[in-house]
Amino acid sequence: MDPAVNRQFILKSRPVALPTPEEVPMIESPVPEAGDGEIVIRNLYISLDPAIRGWMSDEPNYIEPIPVGTKVWATGIGRVVQSNSPDFEVGDIALGMNAWEDYTLCPAEAASKVDPMGMPLTTYLSILGATGLTAYFGLLDVGEPKEGETLLVSGAAGAVGSIVGQIGKIKGCRVIGMAGGEDKCRWLIDECGFDDVIDYKACDDLAAAIADKCPDGVDIYWENVGGDMLDAVLLNLAERARIVFCGWIATYNDEEKRPGPKNLWQLLAKSARMEGFVVKSYVPQFPEGIAAMADWLQQGKLQYKEHVVEGLENALDAFHMLFDGRNTGKLIIKIADE
Ligand SMILES: NC(=O)c1ccc[n+]([C@@H]2O[C@H](COP(=O)([O-])OP(=O)(O)OC[C@H]3O[C@@H](n4cnc5c(N)ncnc54)[C@H](OP(=O)(O)O)[C@@H]3O)[C@@H](O)[C@H]2O)c1
Questions:
Q1: CATH 3.40.50.720 in the chain, residue ranges
Q2: Ligand 1 pocket: which of 322, 331, 333 to mutate (most atoms <8 Å of CB)?
Q3: How far is the C-alpha of 197 from the C-alpha of 81, rounded, in Å?
Q4: 103-107 vs 306-310, strand pairing mode
Q5: Is the dihedral of CA 307, 253, 13, 64 positive or negative?
Q6: Cβ distance 169 to 175 under 8 Å?
Q7: Which atom of ligand 1 is closest in space to residue 245's alpha carbon?
Q8: Is the CATH number 3.30.1490.190 carried by domain 130-280?
Q9: Whose CA is closest to 76, among 36, 108, 49?
């Protein structure tokens, strides 16, 4: 690769469904120069998150949409190669809201310096990053798990879902995961310690399968998926159930809005609640969450998988994996050697 070139994916137009190379092409531009108070980060890894699909749309969201004609954002970790700020030296490792690009120019205050403390850099995008912390704060703060409760997790073999289930086990819950395919389901039982699983792709009647695995009802439902899956869960709530609304990945590429959940009435029938949250709200508490997760990791209580795809040029194809289930674990693009 020419080191004077910055390859970038830009949002040429807002995607209609699954983003295409015409809507999100890769272009080449010059490597940026750091101005006063700015740094340039050589991106080493970027995190591909389903949420990026939402940032490409112009619906109201928790952040402003990516402006058309500009680069596609992603959390990234890399090495500082230029610094005009006293806060960073060349060679430091920096984490920030970077982009699908080789080099990111940003104000120094927009990035955080990372001391890897012997952990692989990718863990700051996975288990010790926003992914792990989504599971940690969403389950503990919104789900309020109690010993003996039944926790049902959708997207269970994914980056967030697999950690949610394991934290649920640490907190004494009975944990059931829903995931697509035998391999993912086996991993949840054998490695992650889930009590039971439902392979939703091999299931004709999901509501009946949930009733079978959760005979006393679902006390906490971790909602990653939406669509028909949510409707099937709604028919199986326990009294005072909590639905932790983390994501609706089944709907992100819908060309037309689908009708809302059919069984929402069950929230009333079971005096249940459904509460959305965004991990970004917990930023001030991140140090506490990272310390707890690192501690559980050291004690061998958490397993995690990373799915690393080599090469920035593969970012768009890799992004599609999140929506067809080809990713096994936290999806990360490796852009350059450390
Ligand atoms: N609220 C927040 O702050 C926050 C933060 C991070 C992530 N999230 C949300 O958390 C969820 C998981 O994100 P992640 O980064 O951990 O991704 P992930 O679970 O590692 O990957 C996405 C998985 O979703 C499943 N999936 C995709 N389409 C599906 C469908 N139509 N029906 C059922 N399952 C489907 C696939 O697994 P299978 O093979 O099992 O189908 C796929 O592997 C997403 O909804 C995301 O938006 C929210």
A1: 130-280
A2: 322
A3: 46
A4: unpaired
A5: negative
A6: yes
A7: 1
A8: no
A9: 49
Residue 319 CA, ligand 1 centroid: distance in Å: 12
Alpha carbon of 49 to ligand 1 centroid (Å):
8
Distance of CA 85 from the midpoint of ligand 1 (Å): 37
Please, which pLDDT band fits residue 2 given cuts at 50, 70 and 90? low
Q: Ligand 1 center to residue 193 CA distance, Å?
A: 20
Question: Cβ distance 18 to 320 under 8 Å?
Answer: yes
Task: Indicate the pTM of the whole model.
Answer: 0.97
Distance CA 16, CA 92 (A): 39
Asked if residue 163 lies in contact with residue 304, where contact means CB atoms within 8 angstroms, the answer is: yes
What CATH code would you report for 5-126+304-334?
3.90.180.10
Ligand 1 site, residue 178, Cβ cutoff 6 A: no
Q: Which amino acid, residue 259?
A: P
C-alpha–C-alpha distance, residues 226 and 229, integer Å: 6
Relative to beta strand 26-30, strand 5-9 is: antiparallel
Both tokens of residue 189?
């039982």
CATH 3.90.180.10 segments of the chain: 5-126+304-334
Asked if residues 251 and 228 have their Cβ atoms less than 8 Å apart, the reply is no
Q: How confident is the model at residue 287 (pLDDT cuts 50, 70, 90)?
A: very high
The pLDDT value recorded for residue 4 is: 80
Pairing of strands 93-99, 218-223: unpaired
The structure tokens listed for 247 are 């994501």
The answer on pLDDT for 284 being more than 60 is yes
